[in-house]
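Predict the 3D structure for this chain.
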Amino acid sequence: MSLDMRPDCERCGIDLPADAAGAMICSFECTFCAACVTGPLEGVCPNCGGGFEARPLRVGAALARNPASSARRFRG
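Done. Predicted structure below.
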């Protein structure tokens, strides 16, 4: 099973491309931008209470074979 690679920050809605740095995930794949994680969220996932790690990049052939999700999570 591969990461869902969600396309946006759940808090602010900024785009988080699968092949670019800047996305942070918790162990449940809740996805937020680095600015929200280090700022208002203070390193704690508001959904599950867990911590965050940088989401790995998916590039080239891996991204072509396993495209990122298109389902946006921002509800603002």
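The first strand starts at residue 23 and ends at 25.
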